[in-house]
């Protein structure tokens, strides 16, 4: 049996998707990953076969830098970074306006490349990133049964009454102007309609007999997999989703890092892990405040600086572990608190490790994800653009003391997500599905 995994050329997407493939690998099955050149080393590290497939203009091998992107994509990335400094609504507005270029780049060409890929690989089962819209067009038009995986908060797949790009909920710390919200909603609706028209035009070129979509953002594959803990999702909203399976988490194994292992073995204070992921690490101004806030607490910090120069972050205590990139899964296993932007990998991996989160969300579904953690009592959210050093320190101190019933529920959730739960659930969900 052969499993084909189709992923954008972004490490943050490929890591969980490839991790799902380990269930097939352990069963002795063939796994082929189709992605771009920037993530080729990740595919090799998993021990999978690789096919080259470029699904978009941009790429990210682990830490993204605007100057490393192709012309046009570099300016778009700088525009996004600038928008995050203006606030929640401004960032969501920028992302909505850029949506067609981001998600439907050369759709017919990519769709046909995917169809040729399927002919070449002859997979029995296919898993594709939900946001790989052009790839899903190719599979749909060719009648190839497949599973698509929502890697973000489940609101990345809108249900009745929701519109893609407009968060159904957000933490109470954010208080956007009602008129700005109304304008954002109208913009997201217009983008939905324009995007759907593009989807339908491409679909009909690929298959003239195809039935047009009424909302392309709500289209799903034959199997819908949500890489998110069901325990953090509204059961009422779950009833509005198409038939689906919650994977919980897809936590990867990491190669042993001698420096990190030595640091973990040192006696000392509790460990706090800090990372803003591959994109938002560019917000060195926020990282600087986090560094200053944690400096005043009895903790050792493992700080992944990403694209920010660590020398710009002010004095850093000698016992801290500071690198551009760190093995996040391993460090979370030994942490008592994580400070994060609230990306899906950070959330699911922290929950699997039973670690509470101090969240500073910037964009997309990070707001809905942060609101869910606040409601569960597993985290606390601050506005990254206005939170002071003292406010960050106070929130971190409160989370370090998390105890009682919330701590018990968090431990229970971590146990339920551990031991390869996500890959196993994906394997079980696809057992009855074949591409033909």
From TrEMBL:
SUPFAM superfamilies: UDP-Glycosyltransferase/glycogen phosphorylase. It comes from the Bacteria. Keywords: Glycosyltransferase, Transferase. Pfam families: UDPGT. GO terms for molecular function: UDP-glycosyltransferase activity. Gene3D superfamilies: Glycogen Phosphorylase B. Belongs to the UDP-glycosyltransferase family. This is Glycosyltransferase. It comes from Cryobacterium psychrophilum.
């Amino acid at each position: 049996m052969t499993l084909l995994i189709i992923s954008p050329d972004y490490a943050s997407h490929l890591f969980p998707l490839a991790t799902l493939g380990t269930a097939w690998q352990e069963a002795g099955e063939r796994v082929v990953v189709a992605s771009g050149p920037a993530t080729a080393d990740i595919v090799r590290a998993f021990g999978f076969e690789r096919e080259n497939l470029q699904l978009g203009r941009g790429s990210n091998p682990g830490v993204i830098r605007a100057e490393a992107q192709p012309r046009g994509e570099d300016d778009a990335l700088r525009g996004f970074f600038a928008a995050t400094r203006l606030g929640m609504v401004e960032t969501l507005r920028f992302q909505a306006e850029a949506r067609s270029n981001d998600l439907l780049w050369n759709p017919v060409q990519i769709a046909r490349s995917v169809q040729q890929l399927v002919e070449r690989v002859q997979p029995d089962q296919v898993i594709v990133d939900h946001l790989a819209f052009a790839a899903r067009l190719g599979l749909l038009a060719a009648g190839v049964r497949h599973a698509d995986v929502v890697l973000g908060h489940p609101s990345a797949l809108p249900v009745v009454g929701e519109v893609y790009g407009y968060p159904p909920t957000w933490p109470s710390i954010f208080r956007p102007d009602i008129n700005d919200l109304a304008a954002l909603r109208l913009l997201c609706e217009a983008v939905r309609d324009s995007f759907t028209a593009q989807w339908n035009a491409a679909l009909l070129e690929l298959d003239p007999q195809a039935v047009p979509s009424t909302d392309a953002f709500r289209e799903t594959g034959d199997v819908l997999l949500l890489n998110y803990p069901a325990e953090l999702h509204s059961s009422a909203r779950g009833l509005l989703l198409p038939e689906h399976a919650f994977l919980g988490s897809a936590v990867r194994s990491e190669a042993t890092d001698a420096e990190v292992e030595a640091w973990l073995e040192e006696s000392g204070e509790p460990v706090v892990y800090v990372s803003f992921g591959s994109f938002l690490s560019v917000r060195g101004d926020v990282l600087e405040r986090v560094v200053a806030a944690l400096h005043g607490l009895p903790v050792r910090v493992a700080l992944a600086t990403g694209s920010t120069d660590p020398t710009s972050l002010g004095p850093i205590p000698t016992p801290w572990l500071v690198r551009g990139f760190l093995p996040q899964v391993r460090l979370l296993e030994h942490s008592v608190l994580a400070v994060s932007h609230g990306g899906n990998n950070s959330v699911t991996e922290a929950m699997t490790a039973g670690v509470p989160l101090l969240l500073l969300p910037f964009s997309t579904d990070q707001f809905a994800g942060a609101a869910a953690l606040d409601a569960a009592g597993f985290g606390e959210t601050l506005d990254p653009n206005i939170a002071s050093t003292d406010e960050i320190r106070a929130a971190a101190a409160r989370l370090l003391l998390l105890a009682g019933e919330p701590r018990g529920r968090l431990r229970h959730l971590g146990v339920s997500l551990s031991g390869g739960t996500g890959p196993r659930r994906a394997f079980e969900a696809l057992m009855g599905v074949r591409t033909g």
